[in-house]
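[Q] Does anyone have a clean structure-token version of this?
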Amino acid sequence: MIEKIILSAIIALTPNEKKVLNNLQNRLEKQGYNISQYIEDPRFEIYNFNGGGKAINYADTTQSWYMRPDSIEKCADFIKEQYHWLKKTEKKFGIPPEHLVSQLQLETRCGQYTGEYPVINALISRYVRRPDLRNKYYKYISDFLDLVADTTDNIILPRDIFEIKGSWAGAYGNAQGMPDMIKKYGRKTDGDGDGKFDPINHPDAFDFMGGILDDNGFRENPNRATQRYNPGDPFYPSSVEQHKKELEKIMEKKRRIPPERLVALRDMHKFSRNIAPKMHNPKPIAKFQLPQKQVFLKRIFTNNKSRKKTSNN
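[A] Here you go.
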């Protein structure tokens, strides 16, 4: 559970934390960033991450929601819905749809839950509360401010910084990219070909995740590449792999037809039902010949009977 502490009640921070926050402001100002406008906003908060903020148990998959049959079934439906874009990503990076969807399911339930914390709050909270991660989070904060400030970039973000909401760690979008990854890969990511990278757009998220996994050597070592994508938990790659195997079983069992083939079969059915009968509507040969034979034989038998009667008379 994450305890929220509103910064306006400054007394809630320890003297050392106040000093850390002040140093952060001064440090960023030297780079040309003024975060006082955010700190003075009533929506700004400092979070106390009890237990690290971990929400998913990757170690015990038997107790994890993402391994339930209904959860995996939803992933199979998601593959069907996004088949075109997933196959496009597979062709580009060599990453199977089942792997991408399994990883997205663990990250954000395939985009259904991308996080509820303003990223600016989460990043500064981690900087203040976690001295061991301070250098890393300073880089995240500066990269995030770069993304927000660059309005000419192809990366789509909400204009109101407090509406950019993500995880407790500061990850944003369907694929949960940290600011440094969004800054690095977002500019060259365009899954749907519209010239923009929208982190909460499925095709863009596929392309974003695929690019990172590919750069981390997915083709040579999928497990290592998956671990590098989310290095925070050593059980993360094994959870993705187990989910992927169960998803592959369902896909094989149901023999799901890709949407492209479904459309082709539907059109073929419409043609055979509506157009083909108008072009050619032959009568079945058996039904056409059989009555003729019956009539012909009946005529023969009738003639034979009449001849016998005539001869007898």
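[Q] Thanks! Anything notable?
[A] Residues 61-113+173-260 form a domain with the Lysozyme fold (CATH 1.10.530.10).
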